[in-house]
Design goal:
Elements (H helix, E strand, L loop, with lengths): L1 E2 L5 E8 H12 L12 E7 L27 H9 L25
Antiparallel strand pairs: 1-2, 2-3
Length: 108
């Protein structure tokens, strides 16, 4: 699965749901959890408007003069309209690593 250099298009053939979830996690900069139960592969062609919701990507370029800056909608709307999936924001448990203390190693 590939994302366009402009950060506003995802494409892939025979994509398993875990791969789509991995890419969306990277693109959004937040954890995405699959609750679909979908086990088959599918083709993905997703076009969306890059905006501040894409925490895992560089800031989007300014819209071209005279162009429609929101032709495809943000990634949340595009996923629902183009793939028939829905991203819902929710709170849940997250694995966290906590460092209690740090010491310099000693020579043997």
């Amino acid at each position: 699965m590939a994302i366009s250099p402009a950060g506003a298009e995802l494409r892939g053939s025979a994509v398993p749901m875990p791969e789509l979830i991995r890419v969306l996690t990277n693109v959004l900069g937040r954890i995405v959890v699959d609750k679909t139960g979908f086990a088959r592969t599918f083709d993905v062609h997703l076009e969306f408007t890059a905006d501040e919701a894409l925490g895992g990507l560089p800031a989007p370029p300014p819209p071209a003069a005279g162009g429609d800056p929101d032709i495809h909608g943000n990634i949340f709307a595009a996923i629902q309209d183009q793939l028939g999936l829905k991203l819902e924001s929710a709170k849940g448990p997250v694995d966290v690593v906590v460092i209690d203390s740090v010491e310099r190693p000693v020579a043997n």
